[in-house]
Amino acid sequence: GDSDGGSEDLVLTPAQLIRSLEQAWLNEKFAPELLESKPEIIECVVEQLDHMEANLKRSKKGDLKVSIHHMEIERIRYVLSSYLRCRLVKIEKFLPHVLEKEKSRAEGEPSILSPEEFAFAKEYMANTETYLKNVALKHMPPNLQKVSLLKSVPKPNLDCFVFLRVLERQENILVEPEMDEEREYTIDLEEGSQHLIRYKTIAPLVASGAVQLI
Amino acid sequence: GDLGPFNPGLPVEVPLWLAINLKQRQKCRLIPPEWMDVEKLEEIRDRERKEDTFTPMPSPYYMELTKLLLNYASDNIPKADEIRTLVKDTWDTRIAKLRLSADSFVRQQEAHAKLDNLTLMEINTTGTFLTQALDHMYKLRTNLQPGESAHSQDF
Description:
heterodimer; A: mainly alpha; Methane Monooxygenase Hydroxylase, Chain G, domain 1; Ribosomal Protein L9, domain 1; 2 domains; two-stranded antiparallel sheet; 7 helices; 52% helix; disordered N terminus; B: mainly alpha; 5 helices; 55% helix; 2% strand
């Protein structure tokens, strides 16, 4: 549908919403880089959890339903926390690159950081720089007092291998063998098939939802 | 999701986590899946041993289901011990094949593999090791080629 850049009205059943959350979670877990933030999914899941908790409060205590719903809430909450924590780990690990990518993002491109994550990243960066300066840098000779975190922090390795399952059929995906002697070839990705391949080639397919990392 | 209706005496389908939980609370009896049967599993095991490639499994979660059901509901499953052995044999055969494929994948520096009949449990059991090994090999090789943009840090 059309995106107005503001809030998108996603009409998903609760089951579909949880499925989207699980997909986002797995993709984030297995991708080497920080993926697009999914504020719509997170908002809807939080809303759903609040709704379920309110229902629970109203129900008769000791009802079997209550314990079942409670378990379901805990399970969903676990996935949500794991997803958010996974993102935070990557933000902390690739800090300068994440901030750089977000700052140099073009107008229509989706954000990889939620507003809260962006604020966290900036603050974390500032604290890290202050810490390095106070603990070590200011004691160095004057010409060594600057450090570029952007240059010294390793970038995510996009050439790593990942496992994926195909959700939407794709044709002519380029496979580049490492050695120059072997020529590159293309493969088709059939729906439902599973593959082992380098992340870099299929990164856009993960973003578009055509494949699922497993 | 939606569940039920729960009527006494009538079987109902529920998610696995709920089934195990209810069974632990002694509120129900679990009915094993159709394929969890000695004859069927013998067929599956024999077929897997005969073929070089991976044969399709009766369930993408055959290992998880077997482990959980046999741990928590073995009293509801006829010939549980035989079933446990049969599934383990099949698993062992498949993992051995996987180790061979992984070894040749790394040696021949393949760039792509299709793994349709592998289940998630098998992929994740060997997957991390395989991807990390591939990663290390890649880093070692790219550092052999001077002038290439290796991920080294310039200060």
